[in-house]
Amino acid sequence: MFNRRSGPTSKRLVTIYATGLSQRFDEVVGEEPLEIHISQGGYVSPFSVTMRTPGNDFELTTGLLYSEGFINNRKDIAELRYSCNGPEGQDYNVMIAHLREVRRELENSKRATFMSSACGVCGKSSLSDLLNLGDKIEADYCVDPLFLLSLVDVMRSEQRYFNATGGVHAAGVFDLTGRKLVVREDVGRHNAVDKAVGYLLLNDVLSKASVMVVSGRAGFEILQKALVAQIAVVASVSAPTSLAIDLATEMGITLVGFLRDGSFNIYSHPSRISTK
Asked: Quick one: which H or E segment has residue 152?
């Protein structure tokens, strides 16, 4: 059923018009499961199954392990590899993460559950898990509104899967000069963020991350990942949720919503956005 594709897949469809119909092929976004296992001391334990767009799987695994508190940096990972013992035809849908030291008890994480591409916290089973986050962000830099608006165009220009299918989300991370550090796409909003953060970790540039722009709704799980990564400004082209606003307010994140068409809303810590 599954075959690894890092790009869009061509599917036949029928389009209905007022004057009739036509048949053609169209590009649709790929979605397949990624089963992640954690290995330490010779033992391999299941961690998570997440639906994702194939591609950048090492980054996705790294970012997810980081946001969940299993690693602090890339040196905590001894090896990432695809399993050669997975179900037939699914070798590239099973990932083994060999960790030098597990910094959080796997059996207590409650993350070894199925996650859909629409859910970033489905594996959490208690509020204490949700609130086990990072340190409050104290960054005191300030960004210009026009600078912030320009980042949407930069991210949009990098969304080649979205251009082909219209069916994926994106996360872009930038430094204070506006330099693009990474843009990643995925069928899941939270996966796009994990891929972006995973890239920054694997390339030792997470400390330069200052602004994150996301294409979809700014929900709690997006803010949680930004907090762990200590990214002080999170901007969404769509709406935030009430819990995301509460988390941003409490933990020192400047949260921007509806970043499009030359304007945006600031929901928390507006002092990081210049008003001069």
From this structure: helix 145-157
